[in-house]
Amino acid sequence: MPAVTTVSNHIRSDGISHAYGDRPVLTDVSLVVAPGTRLGLIGENGAGKSTLLRILGGAEVPDAGVVARPARTGLLWQEVRAASHETLSTLIEQAIADVRRIERELERAADALGEGDDDAVRRYELALDAAERADVWSVDARRDELLAGLGVGDIPLERRLEEVSGGQRSRFALAALLLSRPDALLLDEPTNHLDDDAAAFLQRQLVAWPGPVVFASHDRAFLDEVATELLDIDRTRRGTTRFGGGYSDYLAEKAAERARWQEQYEAEQRELGLLKHAVAETARNINHDRPIRDGNKMAFGMRGDKVEQQKSRRIRNARGRYEELLETQVRKPREPLRFSGIPRGSHALDDDGLLVQLTDARIDGRLEVPSLQIEPTARILLTGHNGAGKSTLLHVLAGTLHLDAGSVQRRKGLRIGLLEQDVRWADATQSPRRIYERAVGERRAEALSLVSLGLVAPRDVDRPVGVLSIGQQRRLALALIVARPPHVFLLDEPTNHLSLALATELEDALGGYPGAVVVASHDRWLRRRWEGQRRELRNGRLLPAFG
User: Fold this and answer.
1) Which of 16, 45, 132, 514 could form a disulfide with 65 if both were Cys (CB 3.0 to 4.6 A apart)?
2) Class of CATH domain 7-96+161-252
């Protein structure tokens, strides 16, 4: 069925399907988002969230299905779609061109009232309604409020896009979209590049938005605070599942769903075992093994026929049920990410004393650490704005950056693992399986397979690592560390490029990690639930401990 688009005050899709070449992305997706509803899209990387937003916004045409949306529907792309030589002022004016058009139409409609046009009253009513929805009278005041709220109010509008950072460009694009006051909003990762204050400001804007809102986000705190419903796009199930409430409600329902899944799996496995036993043993256990008594051979034969029939029927029933259940059984639930502990044979470390100590450590112009001590079971969260020095400090701890002054002391035999933000591979043609075997050794790889860690899908283990997504490559890097847990585990923005489920599982696993953990993160969900020590970096200087 060809794609059809209609106008509605709702956002609606019926039977949307779309593929890129021979790779299906969306299959029969249907949803309705009423005014006042804020629907959060969640799912694995590549599940089709961005594609769905583009289709709902009219930027992409689906292969099949029906789309309905308000006439003025605004779409925020992850990347700013404007020429780098354009000014920030031009970016904003292009976004509100429709608002300016509505304003001009209201003026023309008002003039027509005095000319006695028969349709003038109706025309003016429509223009006034559109102007009120677009809030045309407060555009300039709202522009200043939005730019200030998103943290870019002090940047001159005469600057070109190429003269500001990518994060600043994204904030201006978001401000321009909100300023245009569309009847419906479609947002792709709207909190990317936002600090806590700007994210809180955006939250207030969306909660008060009168029209339908659909947004895709990996920001669990934002999903929890903004979404009234969640749509889980799961290609493994060939469909979508809708959940009421925010992310906390979603987690509770997913936990209950997994418990039901596990219960059904275990019940089916027990039944399969019993049926297999029944097929093999019923013939022996149904009686008629006793010897024939003299004088009773005729009766025995009659009873024997009935027993044989009964036996055959029971075996057929058991075999039929066994084959049916074998075909329809649910697959085993994937085990959540868990650390198994320091492998046997590794350098043994006692629980006393320090693992790492920095004293008056300094890298000129980048980092200054008066003191930092890491104990065997430390849990340290590093916070601070972009460029504050978090990644630099992690590299110093890992030994990949050298100090200009001061000292760093590490326990003898200490093994340190660093999960970097940017993963690079020496040979992009190598498969994850081969990289894993070389990193952990063939014996370890055989005892603890890459797939068993739950981080790399079976379909990806033999593909060239260079063709995998950023998220898939980062999960492989994490697997290399998980397979041989270090004494000190350093993680730089660990939830970036991970699915919501895996990010949550990783955080849960870190709580029980059998060594020291140091995490640098902007993730508000992670930071709000952190139970260990907190250290803030400000302009490269590590402040005293708190929390």
Assistant:
1) 16
2) alpha beta
